[in-house]
Amino acid sequence: MSSTQQYLLDAYRARQLGEPAPGTHESRVVREWRERRRFRAVLAGRRLRGGPRLLPRRRRSRGPGALG
Fold first, then answer.
1. C-alpha distance from residue 7 to each of 11, 15, 30, 55 (Å)
2. What is the full DSSP assignment across 1-68?
3. pLDDT for 11-28, tens place per residue?
4. Angstrom distance (rounded) from CA 27 to CA 34
5. Nearest-angstrom CA–CA distance, 63 and 58
6. Is pLDDT larger for residue 53 or for residue 24?
7. Which distant-in-sequence residues (6+ apart) come within 8 Å of 22 by Cβ?
8. What is the reported pTM?
């Protein structure tokens, strides 16, 4: 049985029992895990990486001979 077939079978069974489909809350769990990790980094005094930028990036000057 392929993973797609297994997922469809699990989704069918969950629907019959009135439960949410498998994987319904995965994005929320990942988002909460990421937020907790960033919070712990702030408490530990580590520099944050990634995430939304609060300030726009400064453009580098390309110099006199650069194209584009």
1. 6, 12, 20, 42
2. --HHHHHHHHHHHHHHHTPPPTTTTHHHHHHHHHHHHHHHHHHTTPPP-SS--SSPPPPPP--TT---
3. 999 999 999 888 888 888
4. 11
5. 15
6. 24
7. 7, 10, 11, 14
8. 0.46
